[in-house]
Structure formats: structure tokens, C-alpha cells
Amino acid sequence: MPPKAAHAAPSADTHAAHAPRDDGEPAHASAPSRPPAHAAHAAHAARETLIRSNKYDAIRTAVFALMNMSAALMKTREEVRKGIAEVAAHTVERNRLTITAAEQAAIVDALLNDMFGLGPIEPLLTDETVTDILVNGPDQVFVERSGKLVLTPLKFRDNQHVTHVAQRIAAAVGRRVDESSPMVDARLADGSRVNVVLPPIALRGASISIRKFSKRNITLARMAQQGNISPAMLQVFKIACMCRLNVIISGGTGSGKTTLLNALSQHIDEHERIVTIEDAAELQLQQPHVVSLETRPENSEGLGAVSQRDLVRNALRMRPDRIILGETRGAEAFDVLQAMNTGHDGSMTTIHANTPRDAISRLESMVMMANGNLPLLSIRRQIASAVHMIVQVERMRDGMRRVTRVTELVGMEGDVVITQDLFSFRQNAGASRDDVKGGFETTSVRPGFAPRAAYYGQEAALAEAIKS
């Protein structure tokens, strides 16, 4: 049966002031005269001009000369702010500097950020329009807003300044980063993920990559309203959770996999025991019976590492109703499939892949890495019996994250895993480079999990969703 349009997706034209963030949220609506991103850019530019002025140099020199830095670091931020403000006021009066109260306050904040925070990029952590912060050496700071990378005017003093901030981030989580150990993964106090690479590995200066942690829970209903999914997909996803389907969310970096996983998890019954496993805690499950586990890297002696595979194996001994793995990317794939095949229905995970078929191939490769003696046909049979649905998400060129395909695994035919698409996103030809026009389509085929939906009393709701 030919596919029919289920829901037209908003184009970049209709969402110029409401483009989604990396976490699936829209950016704040633009002010009539000046969008927030432009205002933030102007504010950062003004701050950079001030920090590179003689006024800043004079106050900074006085602060470091008159304050005991070791003692200051033992005090609270507000206590140090008061001390810096007093030194700044004294310096302004003594040197007869022409400076406004706002400029003086900005200099005090900048010095505080250097001492306690992340230097010039500290204000970006509280900017809700920013989802990623990318530092490429001292002279380049990029941010992602509304799905697009933008160069900011923010700069560090020099490469040593970037390195100092990177080492502060690592030290806060008990890690070390220097020339002998030039790469580290860490997490900020707010949950944001950080990756650091120092010279000589980073050829153009120290690199800091921050994926900000979103504190906002995005619902499937909100995603349908924004055009990330169609209303019909919304209903099928709810039914998939209620019917305890094993779901894999597939997509590239920054495509919104974790956001969708969070949204799906909101429809898990509150009476179930859920065990989550992640490298860096990002899932925000609201159910009352959740056990959250997090991997641990090895220490400086190369000991103490706890891998995702270790945690998946241990989770099976914890009487979980469902296991949710933040991302499958290695040997743990075999154990996840085992869990899905041994009574832990409704388990979910994400995987880096460009299509549902690629996701299946990646699972095969991961399982073979962990169990080289296992025949490929046996692996495929495990995948076909364990995984019910693969949801493909994509960050498209207009910055919008969309579910581009919902694919069901329906069994084996010979040595091939058989799939069928339930939904897809069809992009219209002829759109401009930064615009995406198209719509969501349903194939109107009867899902293979329809008998399961009937068992859970969702057969009529599923039929209505598929034909809508």
C-alpha cells in the first residue's frame, strides 16, 4: 500500500523564531527587534573588549598583588567577590580610572570566573540557548544554538589559560590532565559532559568540548508540537512503552537520541523497577523505583575501572523489570541482547548509526567483538528476537531534530533480519540550503507487534494511530 502523509513537518520558515535546541526544545522566541542570540553575542563582544582594556589589567594586577590567593580559594565565592570588589573600588579611586559601575561589576565577575569557574566561557553555562560549548585553543570559542554552530567573540588570554581551566575541570572530579595524560572525560557540577585534549595531541592549543546538561524534561507531546515527531508517532511510541517493546534509538552525534530516550521513559509504568546504566548520567527518569548506575574510569594506576558491560551484567542480578542503557557502543551489546531475550522486556538503549539497517550491522559487529566464536547467523537471530523497534533520529540541515524513520524488526528470512517501516520523513526537493520542507508519512502496514498490543489492551489505539 502506498504511504500516505501523516503530518507535515514545520519548515525553517515557520520556525525561524522557534527552532529546536539540541535537547529537542525550542530556543526562546525572538524579541521583535533583536533575537536573544544576537543580544548575547553583543554582550560577549562588549565583555571581551572590557577584559582586554587597561582598566581590567589594572584591577587584575591589584587583585593578585593585594589578595592572598591560597586563602581566597578556601573562602566562599561571595566572600571572595566582596574582597575583589573592595580592591577594585580602591584601584579605580587610586588610579582615577574612568569606569562605570556596570563595567566594574563585570570585571569583578570575570575575575571570579577565572578563580572559581571556567574563565571567559563561564557565562555560557547559564545561557539556556546554548547546548554545546567548543573551545579550540585560546582564540576560538564556538557554541551551538538552535542546532547550528556559531563563533563567539570570547577568547582566553593564552593557551596556558585554557590549560588551567581544563585542569581545574579534571581536578574537580579527581582526574589529572597534563602532557603525560593529555586526554580526559569529566563532568561539571551541573551534569554537563566535558572532554579535554591538551597539546601536544591538540596541535592548535588545548581543546575543551562541553555538552551541556539540560534540566528540562521534554515530553513526547512537546516534541510532536515542535515537529520533531508526528502525532501518530507519539501514539505509537506511547503504545510501545505500555506494551514493553525493546526499543533502540539510532542516530548521529547531537541528533537528540538521549532526549528521545528520556521522553519515552516517561511512559514506563511507575510500579516497575528500572535500572539505568550510563557513562555520564543524563537520563532523568521520574518514576519512584529507579536505580541509576554510572561507569567509572581507571585511576592513575590503571585500576578500579567499572565498564558498562560490568554494570549490565550486575544489573541482571538486581531484579530489574527494565534495563535502560544510555548508549550501546561495545562488548555490552551482547549482554543487552541477552537481557532483552530473558524476560527484561521494555528495555531501551541508543546507538550511533545512520540508518536502522546500519544499527543492526553495528550491533552484529559489537557482539562479534565480545564473542568472536559466535556464528553470525546466531547473532542475527538474537537481534531479531530481542529488538522490536528501531527509531532513527537525525539533526537536519535546518537545525531541527526529527525522527526520520520508525522501523520494526519482524523476524528472519534465511540469514537476513527482516524489517518493515512504520513511519518515515519524506523531504521535498528544491528547498534552499538551510531549509527543510517535507512531512511525516505512515506506511499504514499492520505492525508485527499488533498481537502484543492486543494482549495489553492497546489493539484499537494502535490501529487508529497507524491509519491516522
Structure description:
The protein is 37% helix and 21% strand. Helix 4 (77-95) packs across helix 5 and helix 9 (231-242) packs antiparallel against helix 16 (459-467). Strand 11 (322-325), helix 12 and strand 12 form a beta-alpha-beta unit. The model is unreliable at 1-6 and 10-35 (pLDDT under 50). The protein is elongated, with a radius of gyration of 25 Å. The longest helix has 19 residues, at 77-95. The chain is built from 16 helices and 16 strands. A ten-stranded mixed beta sheet has the order 1-16-15-14-13-8-12-11-9-10, with helices on both faces. A six-stranded antiparallel beta sheet has the order 4-3-2-7-6-5, with helices on one face. It has three domains: 27-116, no CATH class; 119-213, Beta-Lactamase; 220-467, P-loop containing nucleotide triphosphate hydrolases (Rossmann fold, 3-Layer(aba) Sandwich). The protein is α/β, with parallel strands linked by helices and 468 residues long. Residues 1-43 are annotated as: Disordered. Residues 243-397 form the AAA+ ATPase domain. Residues 15-26 have a biased composition (Basic and acidic residues).
